[in-house]
Amino acid sequence: MHDPPSRATSEGMNDTIADLVRKHDPDRFLTALFAPPAHRDALMVLYAFDHELARARTVASDPHLALIRLHWWREVVEGAVKRHEIATPLTALLTAGHLTPSLLGPIVDAHEVETEPAIETLDAWREWLLAGDGGVAVAAAFLLGASEPETFRAAGAAFGAARVVRWNRALAARGRCLLPADVLGAEGLTPEAAIAEPGSPGVRRVLPRLAAEGRAFLGPRRRVPRGLVAAALPAVLARRDLGRGADAISGPRGLGDRLAVVVAGTIGWV
Questions:
Q1: pTM (2 d.p.)
Q2: Is the pLDDT of residue 147 over 90?
Q3: Which of 44, 88, 153, 269, by CA, is between 20 and 30 Å from 141?
Q4: How far apart (Å, rounded) are the C-alpha atoms in residues 30 and 180?
């Protein structure tokens, strides 16, 4: 157990970072509100960091340029001091031991996978989810003081699987496919074909299978201590999205989803 991060860790940048997370990662923003106040700003920094990693592939016109951006963040994780609205408070959290390079490095690795033409196999897809969104969940639990943060990894991976299913059409519209190539191949599809026709019958058969993989990560519901519940709450949204499968709606969250998070965050049952 480590002492809570000081609010001064990101003093002067808290509102900016919170606004960024609210805009670009509203699901995690909502769940972070259930963190103890002393930890909330630091949790927002972690989620903003993950957004910046995801943004590397979105804003770069070439995968090699995305890798350069990701390497910049890897240098920050490994101790380079860089002036940046997110890198600066992230460095403060690392220096204080509230986060560690061993926690954040694999998350960078996972985002590097997204620069490749395809995720080739279902096994590689699972590993990518466990390292990426699973790694974010572990880091969040560590930051909140969990004695066993690894127990949060699978639920984080389920949240990642739900996002792949939920946002498949939106990703395809940006020329991206995060569906495993071997599962697509079993339906006679390539990643390029899935991008061209994200609503095709073959893709619609693939998505429920991947939703089932996500549900397998979740396991049974469990009670989480109030101080740690924010790290587990993305699992609540994952359960709902993975239950919708191929018909998941990719627009703004409805009242039902938000209420489910509020109830789970209040009683600690995720």
A1: 0.93
A2: yes
A3: 88
A4: 29
